[in-house]
Amino acid sequence: MARTRVATMIAILSVVAMVGAGIAIAEMRSPTVNAAAQAEHPSLKYVALGSSYAAGPGVQRLTDKGCLRTADNYPHQIAAARGMALTDVSCSGATTANILHTPQAPHAKRPQITAVTADTDLVTITIGGNDLAYIGRVAAQGCANMASTATAGTVISGCRPGQRIRTEPTAADYAAVEQAIITIVSEVRSRAPHADVVLVDYPPLLDQHARTCAQIPLTAAEAAETVRVYNGLVAATARAAGATGVTLVKASKAGAAHTACSSQPWLLGFEPPSPYHPTELGKTGVARLVLRALRGDV
């Protein structure tokens, strides 16, 4: 089991253009949306598009090893709660291009958008972080910092100082993400004109003061940059939602009390099984937000 967790951690960081660090620890457990709920819409079809924050990487209940997609991610919890037929093509490492026109080799033979058909009733979208190397940058920084300060008894595999770290995105980069999300929504509507379309943004890794903790091995400057990049991503997603008129589920707002340094984190820190990615509590938290939005409770 320890080897499996280490391998999965390394794979997750590799998918975001990183090598990972492995420490075998127990996976945290948190409540899930009631999967035994009576089916609300047994004949309706739901397609989930997005990156790792939708795929929900972890070591248990993997449904797709290439994409590190799990059976307890927020799309699966939504489908179970509403009794919908789910096609989940979310994939760790995906960019907006992988949804629109570029297959995510070697994990997918077709762009994610091809899963959306005329009889689709619901589409959720969580995307944009990898276009900006949001988590890839943070992972590279943490990996380099841990490699240079690791003490005896700490097991870190693959981390090293001097790794290439992407520069901070520009205004043009954020504008490109905004436009790409607008294009995705337009394409979804073209393919499934009767579908409800929901944009789900990313929960925050750090609070707005860029406070770190033992689980977040970043310098003050790196933490501040992380918050700037995150805010730029959230703002681009919000602008795209406003431009297209789709529902925006703000995991960014609800997750502010559940950063990686909080007592009930929605995201892991730099730790297995999925560094800087949703915990079980986070997957359930986002699922509940989407379910509330679908009921109109926003």
Automatic annotation (TrEMBL):
It holds the Pfam family Lipase_GDSL_2. It is an enzyme of class 3 (hydrolase). Residues 48-282 form the SGNH hydrolase-type esterase domain. One of its GO terms (biological process) is triglyceride catabolic process. GO terms for molecular function: triacylglycerol lipase activity. Disulfide bonds join C67-C91, C143-C159, C213-C261. Its EC number is 3.1.1.3. The active site is at S52 (nucleophile), H277. The keyword Signal does not apply. SUPFAM superfamilies: SGNH hydrolase (SSF52266). Keywords: Disulfide bond, Hydrolase. InterPro entries: SEST-like, SGNH_hydro, SGNH_hydro_sf. The keyword Hydrolase applies. This is Lipase 2. It comes from Gordonia insulae.
